[in-house]
Amino acid sequence: MALTLSQKAIVARAQAVGAGRQGVALSQDACNYLLAVIADDLGLRDRFPEIAVAPPPFFGAEPPKGLALPGLDFMGLFERLVGLGPDADTYFHCLATLHKARLKYERILETQPIPTIDQVGPRGLLQYGAIGSKALTAFLLWRKWIFDVDNRAAQETGYMFEPIIASAIGGVPVSAARSPVRRTSDVGKGRQVDCVRPDGKVYEIKLRVTIAASGQGRWKEELEFPSDCKASNLHPVLIVLDPTPNPKLEELRERFLAAGGDAHVGEDAWRHLAAQAGPTMSRFLDLYVHKPIADLLAHMPENPDDLPSMTLGMNAGAMNVAIGGDSLVIRRDPLASERSDDDPSPDDVDESLPGP
Predict the structure, then answer these.
(1) What is the pLDDT of residue 132?
(2) What pLDDT shows up at residue 349?
(3) Which among 24, 28, 167 has a CA at the least distance from the CA of 101?
(4) Which of 92, 102, 105, 329 is least surrounded, with the fewest CB atoms within 10 Å of its CB?
């Protein structure tokens, strides 16, 4: 069965360079690797005799850029895959999106510049004299570098997380300009939506709802979202993956229910997503989103005193992290660091989705 235009577009987007200097593209060999992983995930390995050995695990010690399978005809294999499994094309799209995000973050870690003392020096007045000046200067620089890479991790996760969940449940995220949800408080303007489905359901997808609002204006907008959906003849659905209770979560949940919508929190949210995704894409959500997050939560120390010690070291070619009994080596490219920008702009969300 020949590939559709939509399926060809999925491959083209996977192999296209992302936005910014740190954007990445997937090679044919990387695409072959992802296809081999999907064949294993879906129990289809026996239909691909060309794949002689099991691929390395997607989440493993092998650096993301080393995950490749050379010497195969990817387009031929992909055509066979989508003919064998319903939603296999969406599975590939979502896994490719996740892989590109991991590759980009690997590049960020390699190239994130060491901050300058001009950037952080004045902050040292808060602790000046507590330790020697040489040690305090080093602490300020380490602290700022870790903050920068953590901030980039939050940024890159945000660009990737909601779109792959939207794709998995058969929807798309939409920008405000293209949104079917119109603002009742600002007539004529649309609202950005995490996921719009063909059945009229519109999703607000959150990792968590915290007690601290990000500003009263922003919180007011969050509370107005379900009523704006109702006024637009759409069905609002709230998804919150972290079940930690707090008053703001309950307030938001009540607003969705009052607008005739639904609210799913914690394990109920995961069950709802799995039901909407169907057998193939629920497998993706379980393996690549739900289980990794649950595993990390399960290893959260109950007491801060139980946090293991950590040692950091950096030289011209690598950064070494030792924490507890584990170690991590991050290759560093000082020349690339000098050329790197902050790459603050996300890929256009509408351009990252399957479709003609």
Answers:
(1) 97
(2) 40
(3) 24
(4) 329
Query: What is the gyration radius of the CA atoms in the chain, in angstroms?
Result: 23
Which DSSP string corresponds to 246-265? Answer: -HHHHHHHHHHHHTT-EEEE
Torsion region of 278: left, alpha or beta (phi above 0 gives left; psi -120 to 50 gives alpha): left
Which residue in the block uniquely carries the two structure tokens 């992909």? 78
The three-point CA angle 154-159-160 to 5° equals 100
Per DSSP, 332 falls in state -
DSSP 23: -
d(CA 93, CA 91): 5
pLDDT tens-digit profile of 218-257? 888 899 999 999 999 999 999 999 888 899 999 999 999 9
Instruction: Work out the angle between the directed axes of helices 5-14 and 74-84 (0-180°, nearest 10).
Output: 130
Q: Name the token pair of 84.
A: 């064998």
Distance between CA 92 and CA 354 in Å, rounded? Answer: 10
- DSSP conformation letters of 299-321: T--SSGGGPPPEEEEE-SSEEEE
pLDDT for 90 beyond 90:
yes
Residues 6+ apart with CB under 8 A from 191: 176, 179, 181, 182, 183, 225, 228
Q: Are strands 235-240 and 201-206 parallel, antiparallel or unpaired?
A: parallel
Provide the 3-class DSSP secondary structure of residue 338. helix
Residues in the chain: 356
How remote is the C-alpha of 92 from its chain's centroid?
15
- The token duo for 290 is 């739900």
Q: What's the average model confidence in pLDDT over 36-45?
A: 96
What is residue 286's DSSP assignment? I
Q: How confident is the model at residue 202 (pLDDT cuts 50, 70, 90)?
A: very high
Residue of 37, 35, 24 whose CA lies nearest to 75? 35
Token pair, residue 168, equals 């998995």
pLDDT tens per residue across span 257-293: 999 999 999 999 999 999 999 999 999 999 999 999 9
Residue 345's pLDDT band (cuts 50, 70, 90):
very low
What is the model's pTM? 0.89
C-beta of residue 203 within 8 angstroms of C-beta of residue 171 = yes
Residues 57-89, buried b or exposed e (16+ Cβ, 10 A)? Answer: ebeeeeebeebbbeebebeebbbbbbeebebbb
